[in-house]
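Objective 1b of the project was to move from sequence-level analysis to a structural picture of ligand recognition. The entry below was assembled by the postdoctoral researcher (A.K.) and checked by the PI before modelling. It contains the amino acid sequence of the target and the SMILES of the bound compound, zinc ion.
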Amino acid sequence: MTINVVTEDEANKKVCCRDAVGVLCSASSCMAWRWQPLQTDEPNFLAAIQSYMAKEKCSHQKACAYVHANRKEFNLRSEPYQGFCGLAGSCKVA
Ligand SMILES: [Zn+2]
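Corresponding predicted holo structure:
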């Protein structure tokens, strides 16, 4: 089963998984809402690592650790912003 991860605004436009009569999901206010942890394979995150490596002439590992610890400095989100409505605990593709 595949579950599409969406932002809260997108979830507000979708029918809630708990409701069969068409009530829209209230995202993080919904009892079935699950936050998606921040991903480290986002293009913006990878680009920040590349630019930090070029600027500081450091290893990928060091740049990765620095960017991850200083996300705001790189205009990266520091809080989860996507999730999904569902009672299944995982969004992994089976
Ligand atoms: Zn819901």
